[in-house]
Amino acid sequence: MQLFYQKEIHSAQIDLEQEESKHLAKVLRKVVGDEVHLTDGVGTLYTCKIVEITLKKTRLEIIQKSETPALSHHIHLAIAPTKSADRMEWMLEKITEIGFQEITFLKTQNSERVYLKPDRLEKKLISACKQSLKTQFPIINPLVNFKELLATTAQNYEEKYIAYVDENNQDHLYNLAESGKKYLVLIGPEGDFSPQEIDSAFKAGFKACSLGHSRLRTETAGLAAVHSLVLKNY
Questions:
Q1: For 3-67, CATH number?
Q2: pLDDT of 17 above 90
Q3: Sequence ranges of the chain with CATH classification 2.40.240.20
Q4: Cα separation of 27 and 24, whole Å?
Q5: What is the mean pLDDT of residues 92-118?
Q6: pLDDT tens column, 175-200
Q7: What CATH class has 74-232?
Q8: What pTM was computed for the model?
Q9: What is the four-CA torsion angle of 49, 51, 52, 55, rounded to 10 degrees?
């Protein structure tokens, strides 16, 4: 199955955007009468029939739809962007394929970058969702100050963890986490969280966690954290 995306589907007939139409017509060589699978990104899978197709426009008719069951867990990764935007985009693509529900970018005391292009991130996420056949697209939140995240978002989570460089911290995230929970995991920049930020996180109810014996790059740590929690809920 190949999955296509169209947001805000409100009628029985759908006009695909030009980029998707061109892919259907030129690359896949679809014709009138062929079936196409489509998602709105909020959990619905549509089986559609092509009723009109050109390089610029494709009209689909919905013949069946189904809802994706809600997951018992929620993985929210809060991470300081790397100096290289490409590395963050790579991580976002991979954790989307593995499966997570929400990401927030953090501005910390040692942050290397305080801006990412939301349009590029969204394109990476949509592409990864289509590739991995996901109908429920993760949420991308804008950059937020570390202190603000602790004061607001953190209050809504059952299990809260902070990963930072500490040789004495041997408790792996996989072993600490319980399945079927709402998780919020903090990953710092290459320069790590400051001692003050770590202390503030502890006071806000976060637990220290390890992601293994190796010292990881920021984007690798984000990937490892998401993968650990997905395995816990497998």
A1: 2.40.240.20
A2: no
A3: 3-67
A4: 6
A5: 94
A6: 999 999 999 999 999 889 999 999 99
A7: alpha beta
A8: 0.93
A9: 10
